[in-house]
Design brief:
By secondary structure, the chain is an alpha/beta fold. The chain is about 35% helix and about 20% strand. It has a nine-stranded mixed β-sheet. Helix 7 packs antiparallel against helix 14. Bound molecules: nicotinamide-adenine-dinucleotide (NAD). The site of nicotinamide-adenine-dinucleotide has 25 residues, from helix 3, strand 2 and helix 5.
Length: about 450
Amino acid sequence: MSRQIARRDFLKTTAASSAAVAGASLTSQLGIAPRAYAAGKEVIKIGLIGCGGRGTGAATNALSVKPNVRLVAAADVFEDRMESSLARLKESFPERCDVPKERRFLGFDAYKKVLESDVDVVLLTTPPGFRPAQFEAAVEAGKHVFMEKPTAVDVPGVRRILAAGQRAKEKKLSVAVGFDLRHEPNHKECVKMIQDGTLGEIHHMRAAYNNAGVWVRPGQAGQTEMQYQVRNWYYFNWLSGDHIVEQHVYTLETINWLKGEAHPVRANGMGGRQVRIGKDFGEIFDHHFNEFEYPDGSQLFSQCRQIPGCWDSGYTAYAYGTKGYAVMANQWDCSIHVKGKDPSVWPKRSSGYQVEHDDLFASILEGRPYNEAEFNAMATMTAILGRMATYSGQVVAWDDAFNSTRSLGPERLAWDAEPPVKPGPDGLYPCAVPGVTKPF
Ligand SMILES: NC(=O)c1ccc[n+]([C@@H]2O[C@H](COP(=O)([O-])OP(=O)(O)OC[C@H]3O[C@@H](n4cnc5c(N)ncnc54)[C@H](O)[C@@H]3O)[C@@H](O)[C@H]2O)c1
């Protein structure tokens, strides 16, 4: 308490000169300060780590929560990405975005500098391969966290997220994961109705995330192989986990959620790369199909495909029960169909993307326990289980998969370091071959 008072005295004297970023660091006074923010007298300072598309979006959501939220520090590995993101944020929030040159950090260790600065909350929005190390460090530094899904790309990473999530609970830090659907009102109502038995016993589910694919960032002259892979990160497993993890985790988390936070006990699957086979598509598959079995014997039929010109399902989750079925799609489009009754359909209400930040900051202000790390770690693990099954062609049990010690990341992170996967003489990267590739 005396530390808190001393700090507040200090702030009173310096507030005028550094008005834009002044304010006691909430995280340096854990368990004491949160209520001070409710009065709206102090700022909540955030640091952005990974200033890409979603990082800019997440910062926009965070800065929209309250006028006293300020972006004060940023980290990225690429200057152009950081500068364009900060320029956009400054344009949208001229008063709330205060990141001078000395608080713009570049490089693989840049996140540590943000953690060393006096921020209360960090937004972890890099490619997911970096998430476990950055989340661990953020919790260690006593910061509240918003981190994007997926939270890892391999099983050791999942275990690190679970362990750091537990430490965050002990340290009373709030942890939010970018799974907006848990905060979107239609999904919340729909899932509650399913869990309350509206559809009777759920005997099978379907999950689809099919679309034309995402951006490609071709190699540039003068890049090292590491620079190229980190730029074009989507197509390398050590960075993205493959699109079944990077994107379809979203749908899989919905299914685990509606099953009462259950996870599958085993998976079998098939997949491959049929269309995206050039060198700029790295090593990931372009389609996966899995059957996941849940502990109660119910089955999830799951598909994700990134091939142009095919059925574009977007994100869609279905649950089929003895009394009817439910459909959840497109961020808010939910309906429940019970035999013999009119369907329950909800109009679009608020955006889960904003509400997830409103909820996070409310938990910080109120000093309320808030921790979503485990949900997403389990969904990430579900997606990794699916990838193990499609890459190997084997039936893979959760318990065996969860014991995997295989880390996908490189030994060393530096622009001149060797990435864990390298192209052959033809410029193509080796990729998984079902029947040959081992699941773990
Ligand atoms: N919840 C959602 O709806 C949603 C939507 C889009 C993306 N995402 C997730 O957000 C994450 C980022 O995706 P994106 O679309 O913003 O990608 P992006 O490529 O636009 O942004 C990633 C940023 O991280 C930077 N970066 C890379 N390595 C870094 C490191 N080691 N340290 C600091 N910065 C680093 C990149 O330079 C880039 O600016 C992914 O996990 C993705 O799945 C979630």
